[in-house]
Amino acid sequence: MTARAADRARYDRATAHLDAPVAIVDLEAFDANADDLVRRAGGKPIRVASKSVRCRALLERALARDGFAGIMSFTLAESLWLARSGFEDVLLAYPSADRAGYAELAADPKLASAVTVMVDDPAQLDLIDAARDGGREVVRVCLELDTSLRLLGGRVRVGARRSPLHSPADVAGLARAVARRPGFEVVGIMAYEGHVAGVGDAVAGHPLRSRAVRLMQAAARRELAERRAAVVRAVRAVVPGLEFVNGGGTGSVQHTAAEDAVTEIAAGSGLYVPRLFDNYTSFRGRPAALFAQPVVRRPGVGSVTVLGGGYPASGAAGADRLPVPYLPEGLRYDPQEGAGEVQTPLLGSPADDLLIGDKVWFRHAKAGELCERFDALHLVEGDAVTATVPTYRGEGHTFL
User: What is the Cα–Cα distance from 352 to 79, expressed in whole angstroms?
Assistant: First the structure.
């Protein structure tokens, strides 16, 4: 029996009492992935990216382990909810226009001390001030550095379009603007190198493309390491008490951690290891989060149909954004139908051994987005479900 076949047998036994659709997290794999992230971080703390987990119980599980500290959140409403729930260090990774949230933040000492907001433009400070509604608490601010690699005098850009702050002078200038402004305090710098951390460099069947990605990423890492160090020096000249410099992501943990200027690493997808994180030469994680759909039809030889399953991930549309049939091995989508909203035909010889009601296990493309589809995650240890915990959705929250 292959390792994957053994996993399928375990998951089927563990969830035999549960009707599909159902989502699970294999805790042995989750913990092994957490240990690998810590190993790669080389002693620097890992801030857990909540958008990649979207389950308070599993955020708590990760943060209880040595090597993890703090949360990187994705909306202001989520940040405030987490802070009210007892999480004491929440860094909002994206600017917000949530006026009600800012009013709540500026009026509550506990929230103001626990939550740090992201800023890359003075206009965002104006919005926060206009939203205070009498609240006088100092708002903790993190400045975001644009990490994109610019070539040919800026005519070619590699990397996400995020912050407008690219140079040390850009970031230090905003730091000075914040320092002059009552009611704000710069406490950190964030720089997310998504073109390194979130792009696999070993794409199966594409050796030339993979080599090109590796060359690009090597150049991007060199350029960013030098520029990030200069940015930190420039900002520390304005804000000597800077608390943290956050960088990285699951795919670049060890590279970012090697930079002296970086004090902490952000990671989250590496806990679940969805399919988009299979194509890396620098690490190999274990799939920890999966979902199962039930077989509801047997249209013919070599074919079954499962209920639902069309859960595409965000990002540029493409086949890599779809879940993949994982267990039993050897199933594939019908190219004329793909993953369906209500039903999904699957082809392959393993279909002939599946009965009505049997489970087909899938891996999704992006980590936390699975939790937008399920109210609960069933936590598997060995061949048993040992706990069932709510996702954000199960607690009545989606946030976006």
Answer: 48
